[in-house]
Write a structure and sequence with these properties.
Number of domains: 1
CATH class: Mainly Beta
CATH topology: Jelly Rolls
Protein name: Cupin type-2 domain-containing protein
Strand content: over 45%
Order of helices and strands: EEEEEEEE
Shape: globular
CATH superfamily: Jelly Rolls
Structural class: mainly beta
Largest sheet: 8 strands, antiparallel
Number of helices: 0
Length: 121
């Protein structure tokens, strides 16, 4: 067993007009699958940009907003997940702080919950 922290905020993200955002690579796998921990500080923004591949944005702490191609900000909080398709313009931010895991890869798909029930898996 090997223990490590994934919320280290190793790399400041300043592309796409981003502010108050940092990323830590957590894992990578076959087929260009990658898991990244994103930390958005209070008032921070991860600027709008196209998804390079299929992407799941899993909010694990805090609250904030996400936006798709139309720029409309939709509130999110811990436990919420967002899927962005390859090439889809998107951004995110927070007034109080947010931590999310971004799972990316050409074959990444989410498992939709059954109608009225918990997520299948």
């Amino acid at each position: 067993m090997e223990m490590f922290r994934f919320d280290r905020a190793e790399t400041v993200v300043d592309r796409f007009g981003s502010t108050g955002t940092a990323a830590t690579g957590v894992a990578a796998g076959e087929g260009a699958v990658r898991l990244t921990c994103l930390t958005i500080t209070p008032g921070g923004v991860l600027g709008a940009h196209p998804a390079p591949v299929e992407q799941l944005f899993l909010v694990v702490a805090g609250e904030g907003w996400v936006a798709g191609p139309d720029g409309t900000r939709v509130p999110v909080s811990a436990g919420d997940a967002v899927h962005w398709a390859t090439g889809e313009q998107h951004g995110s931010g927070s007034t109080t702080g947010l931590t999310a895991l971004a799972l990316e890869g050409p074959s990444v798909r989410h498992l939709a919950p059954a109608a009225g029930g918990p997520a299948a898996g």
